[in-house]
Automatic annotation (TrEMBL):
GO terms for biological process: regulation of cell shape. This is Rod shape-determining protein MreD. It is a multi-pass membrane protein. NCBIfam families: shape_MreD (TIGR03426). The chain crosses the membrane at residues 28-46, 95-122, 134-153. Belongs to the MreD family. It comes from the Bacteria. Its main location: membrane. It is found in: Cell membrane.
Length: 159
């Protein structure tokens, strides 16, 4: 039952991210709801859940998007594992948890994506990408992460 619930959450997040959130974009940047779900669930439930949801969310995002296949899968899987390792060291109810975690996760996710793209031979101008994409994405993700983390926290308590 829990597996189906988490799959519904990931699919619903993907649908919202692909349909509603682009309407609230700022300079072509909107929150990465799937990343927020992966980080929150990883911090609350551990690395196994983080890796599983990271893989599923990244795979669905790669399948739904027209970008290079596997970039989102790999980056979200890594993020799920890294933040899942911190599960026992964090205060899960603290309001600063989603703020700090999403700031770090967004930068890590962007860095992983940039490294993969550079390894594939793409040219990236880092300074404009950081100012125009990563910084607004960090701000957007932090704002959205607070209520999403509360929802994921409540769902994680369901037996």
């Amino acid at each position: 039952m829990k597996v189906i619930l988490w799959m519904v959450i990931v699919v619903a997040s993907l649908i919202l991210q692909a349909t509603i959130l682009p309407l609230a974009s700022f300079n072509g940047v909107w929150p990465d709801l799937l990343l927020i779900v992966v980080v929150s669930s990883s911090l609350l439930l551990g690395k196994e859940q983080g890796v599983s949801l990271g893989f599923l969310a990244g795979l669905l995002q790669d399948l739904a998007g027209g970008n290079i296949f596997g970039v989102n899968t790999l980056s979200k899987l890594i993020i799920g594992y890294l933040f899942g390792m911190a599960e026992r060291q964090v205060f899960k109810e603290h309001l600063l948890l989603p703020v700090l975690a999403m700031s770090i996760a967004t930068v890590f996710n962007s860095a992983i994506t940039f490294v993969i793209l550079l390894l594939l031979g793409y040219k990236i101008e880092l300074a404009p990408a950081l100012v125009n994409n990563v910084l607004p994405l960090v701000i957007y993700n932090v704002i959205v992460a607070i209520p999403v983390h509360q929802v994921i926290y409540r769902v994680s308590k369901i037996k």
